[in-house]
């Protein structure tokens, strides 16, 4: 590697942040980079960590370059009043196929199966048994109809068009929740892509998902605060430059930078082929943000349970109550709330006022007397994520698979956007990292064998 003059990352400046940055709850011990890496991995989120672990296991010399001064990307656990809380990913989805569930079990991590049932809250009171059943039926009917719709031959269309009629008063809530977990409203989401995510058997992990991922990075060779600005793949040996002008060379590079960030940088030389550029740029930006509530007198008891809130008043699109049995809860902002707050120019305190106002409509002001909101995420304003996850709009479903093909046997892409069965998740990103790493390691072995 060589160092030259310092340059500032060109696409970094214009985004604003919300809360002041927080320190991670757990920082892994990182190894120094090898002198002569065979593979460079760009980004030390789930995909980058999955890739690096796979390469190390296979005896391949790897160097990971990470823009932030911490690892984990969109999986980030912080300590708030002595409790570990996730500002990004929190659920280990898709238990039967999520590699981080199997690995967690093997490592003796404290996994807890997430409860299936939600608290149901209707018009400022607890739901009656018939309402709880009707709520569950509406979700089942919608899921079946959308899965059927996606399996039908014919052109792709918005997922919303497959919602069954006659869901009555529950229909709005079904669309709101599916829009929340999709990252955009269903009229902007591909029906062909929609049902591919496997949601059964979700888990939580004591101490936070971000800290678990950080533990998996122990002893990996990662350079922090090293944003990559340029990838030159014109030659058999790829050249990668970071913002301070340091240049790295290797036989292959695995790019795990979120597709929302890749729209503007790093630059590729030669430029990416048109079809690859179109596949990357065709994803839309999913928005989903956490407001961390500390609310001892909330009406919800038990632990780690979603609250489904119905009625004519404004309601949180998502509310995960009593994290780990504590007075902490996550209020989940969906794309509509996030975009409306941004349009109004709201910073973190504006988000807090909005969250309070919505909760007051549902629970009454008196109930909020001990509510505080110690943290608010703003992944959409973070230059290294620029959103929560990538969303496939109608017609763009083949892009996930298309991006699996390497460029010139030198550049591989990986990350949550490329996962079909676990899109938008940590498990999917990790798996994509291991896939790309196995392929790159194989090419190197053939090339030198
Ligand atoms: C609020 C929120 C809640 C979520 N909830 C869940 C959940 O409950 N369960 C779940 O499974 N998933 C959830 N997700 C999604 C999940 O966090 C992501 O899908 C996953 O973490 C993505 O991993 P990744 O490796 O693809 O990308 P990232 O984690 O974004 O990692 C990419 C890395 O690349 C780095 N980088 C970017 N640009 C450069 C550059 N130029 N040079 C060097 N490095 C660079 C970034 O800093 C980052 O560390 C949530 C996301 C958010 C935002």
UniProtKB/TrEMBL annotation:
This is Tryptophan 2-monooxygenase. Transmembrane segments: none annotated. The lineage of its organism: Bacteria, Pseudomonadati, Pseudomonadota, Alphaproteobacteria, Hyphomicrobiales. Its EC number is 1.13.12.3. SUPFAM superfamilies: FAD/NAD(P)-binding domain. Keywords: Auxin biosynthesis. It catalyses: L-tryptophan + O2 = indole-3-acetamide + CO2 + H2O. Belongs to the tryptophan 2-monooxygenase family. Residues 1-27, 143-163 are annotated as: Disordered. Pathway: Plant hormone metabolism; auxin biosynthesis. GO terms for biological process: auxin biosynthetic process. Residues 196-439 form the Amine oxidase domain. One of its GO terms (molecular function) is tryptophan 2-monooxygenase activity. Gene3D superfamilies: FAD/NAD(P)-binding domain. InterPro entries: Amino_oxidase (IPR002937), FAD/NAD-bd_sf (IPR036188), Flavin_monoamine_oxidase (IPR050281). Residues 13-27 have a biased composition (Basic and acidic residues).
């Amino acid at each position: 590697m060589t160092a030259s003059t310092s340059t500032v990352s060109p696409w970094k400046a214009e985004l604003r942040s919300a809360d002041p940055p927080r320190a991670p709850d757990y920082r892994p011990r990182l190894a120094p980079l090898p002198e002569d890496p065979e593979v460079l991995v760009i980004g030390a989120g789930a995909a980058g960590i999955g890739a690096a672990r796979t390469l190390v296991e296979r005896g391949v010399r790897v160097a990971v370059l990470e823009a932030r001064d911490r690892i984990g990307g969109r999986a980030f656990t912080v300590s708030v009043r002595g409790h570990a809380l996730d500002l990004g990913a929190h659920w280990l989805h898709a238990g039967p196929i999520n590699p981080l569930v199997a690995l967690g079990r093997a490592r003796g991590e404290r996994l807890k199966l997430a409860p299936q049932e939600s608290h149901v809250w209707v018009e400022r009171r607890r739901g009656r048994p018939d309402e709880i059943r009707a709520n569950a039926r509406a979700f089942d009917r919608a899921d079946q109809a959308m899965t059927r719709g996606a399996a039908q031959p014919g052109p792709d269309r918005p997922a919303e068009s497959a919602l069954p009629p006659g869901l009555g008063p529950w229909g709005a809530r079904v669309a709101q929740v599916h829009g929340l977990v999709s990252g955009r409203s269903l009229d902007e989401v591909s029906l062909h892509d929609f049902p591919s995510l496997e949601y059964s058997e979700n888990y939580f992990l004591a101490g936070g998902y971000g800290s678990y991922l950080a533990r998996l990075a122990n002893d990996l060779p990662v350079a922090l605060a090293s944003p990559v600005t340029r990838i030159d793949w014109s030659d058999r040996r790829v050249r990668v430059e970071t913002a301070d002008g340091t240049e790295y060379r290797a036989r292959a590079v695995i790019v795990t930078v979120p597709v929302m960030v890749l729209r503007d940088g790093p630059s590729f030389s030669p430029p990416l082929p048109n079809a690859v550029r179109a596949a990357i740029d065709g994803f839309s930006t999913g928005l989903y943000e956490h407001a961390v509530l500390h609310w001892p007198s909330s009406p919800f008891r038990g632990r780690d349970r979603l609250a489904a809130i119905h009625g004519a008043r404004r309601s949180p699109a998502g509310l995960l109550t009593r994290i780990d049995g504590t007075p902490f809860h996550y209020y989940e902002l969906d794309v509509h709330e996030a975009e409306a707050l941004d349009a109004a120019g709201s910073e973190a305190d504006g988000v807090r006022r909005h969250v309070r106002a919505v909760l007051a409509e549902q629970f009454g002001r008196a109930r909020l007397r001990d509510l505080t909101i110690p943290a608010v995420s703003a992944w959409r304003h973070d230059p290294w994520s620029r959103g929560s996850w990538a969303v496939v709009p109608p017609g763009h479903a083949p892009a996930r698979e298309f991006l699996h093909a390497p460029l010139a046997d030198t550049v591989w892409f990986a990350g949550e956007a490329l996962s079909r069965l676990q899109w938008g998740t940590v498990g999917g990103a990790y798996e994509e990292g291991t896939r790309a790493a196995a392929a790159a390691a194989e090419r190197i072995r053939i090339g030198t064998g």
